[in-house]
Design brief:
The protein is of the alpha+beta class. It is built from three helices and five strands; from the N terminus they run αβαββαββ.
Length: 109
């Protein structure tokens, strides 16, 4: 009986999902405008790095939707800032807890 109860409670664990999208920042999100970078155009990666350094948080953008990332210290976020990636994690209330980030395989869209 106890084993059956334990099994039932572990069934509530959410399965990890994988999405294709971009690691961005909460300051600029979908748009990286020159007015936020001293009037100079910034490429996506440079913009994300600058905005994070100035207090922004990492976000994940997929299908024009900006999603918050719960674990801001996840090692792959800094490495892949501004990149299009395959992100694996668990989503709860539109917030993702990241477990893995990889670059998409060449030729996959």
């Amino acid at each position: 009986m106890i084993a059956a109860c334990a099994f039932v409670t572990t069934g509530a664990v959410r399965a990890a999902e994988t999405w294709k999208g971009t690691i961005s920042d909460s300051t600029c999100g979908l748009k990286h405008s020159a007015d936020k970078h001293e009037g100079k155009a910034a490429d996506h990666r440079a913009c994300v790095q600058k905005c994070i350094k100035e207090g922004g948080e990492y976000v994940f953008i997929a299908n024009d939707k900006v999603m918050k990332i719960a674990n801001q210290k996840f090692a792959g976020l800094k490495l892949h800032a501004g990149h299009e990636v395959m992100l694996t994690g668990e989503m709860k209330d539109d917030v993702i807890t990241v477990s893995k980030i990889t670059m998409p395989k060449a030729g996959k869209k």
